[in-house]
Structures are given as structure tokens and as C-alpha cells.
Amino acid sequence: DSDSIRTILNRAYNLANSIDNSWAVQRTLAEWSYFEKKQGNLSVALRYALRVIREGESNQESNQLMHYEMLVQMGDIYLQENLFDQAKTYYKNALTLIEQEDDSNINTILCEKMGTSYFLSGQPDSAMIYYEQIEQVHLQNNDQDALIDIYHRIVEHYKENQSPNQSLKYNLKIKELVEQSDNVASLAIINN
Fold it and tell me: What is the 3-state secondary structure (H, E, C) of the chain?
């Protein structure tokens, strides 16, 4: 029951505060933000995410991962609310925070969120800057399944943006990859 979970989170927050443990306070607020987002209480989730960021501003170095998580969380909330400019701002801040990281998974996830934000705001050229970065990572890793998946998402975005020629271009890329792999079952994901 959601009230029980809120009670537990409140107790954890009070305990973390009573022992003056900044990390525990932030972690509890972060978990509370995730919980409220799952409950559909986006404004409450956003408020807790902002509190995590404010709590962590004084010692951002030691809490960089949590700071990053909450920037992404805030971007996700704004994206869900169709507030694309705000979502892009938080995703860009998260990208800036982890620029020095050499984790291609984190970078591709954030690039996809940025690309999606741009597509949904009607800026496909800007979106493709991020999707091309993802494409390069998957090409370097020779990950055909990931390429097919990302091309499929691009096709869907171009369809939503009424760009049939661009949609066709990426469908043909999917078709080429599928034909190279001789995986006939994968042909089903190609959109007409």
C-alpha cells in the first residue's frame, strides 16, 4: 500500500536527518522521487528530485552519481509531461556531468533521451545529432541488434513527424542489416 511506503520513506528520511548523514538523506529523497513518479505523482516526484540536487550541491563530488540520477529523473518527468525544453535542459546537464565518463551505455541512454526530446518537439535535425552518436557506438561495437533497434526507433519518430522519406531511409538500413544476418524472423520489424 502506497501510504505504508510513504511512512517508511518518511522514517528513513527522519533517521538519516537525525544522524546527519547527507548521503542517506539524498538517497531516501531519490527513492521517494522514484516512488512518486511510479505512482503518477509527477509534481511530487519532481519536488523530491529537486531536493536531492539542492542537498547535494555542497558536496557534489561525492554524490555525482545521485546528482546525475536526479537530473535524468527530472528530464524524464518533464518529457512525460510534454515539456520538452525543460527535459532537454536536464538531460544536457546530466550529459555535461558525465562527459568524462567512458561508459557508452550511459551515454547512449542519455543521447536517446535527448534525441527523443528533440523529435517530440519537432526538431528532427537536432534529434539526429544524438541518434548518430548512438549509431556510431553500435557500429564500433558491431552490435547489429542494437543498430536495428535504434533504427526502428528513428523510423517511428520520423513517421510521427510526417517524414516518410527519412523513415524509408532507416527502414532500408534495417532491411540491409537483417539481410546480412540472414535472420528472416527479424524482417517482421521493418515498417512499411
Answer: CHHHHHHHHHHHHHHHHHCCCHHHHHHHHHHHHHHHHHCCCHHHHHHHHHHHHHHHCCCCCCCHHHHHHHHHHHHHHHHHCCCHHHHHHHHHHHHHHCCCCCCHHHHHHHHHHHHHHHHHCCCHHHHHHHHHHHHHHHHHCCCHHHHHHHHHHHHHHHHHCCCHHHHHHHHHHHHHHHHHHCCHHHHHHCCC
Below-70 pLDDT ranges, the chain? 58-62, 100-103, 182-192
Q: CA dist 108 to 20, 116, 145, Å?
A: 36, 12, 14
Distance CA 112, CA 76 (A): 12
Global pTM reads 0.78
- Give pLDDT tens digits for 6-18: 999 999 999 998 9
Q: pLDDT tens, 51-78? A: 888 877 766 566 778 888 889 999 999 9
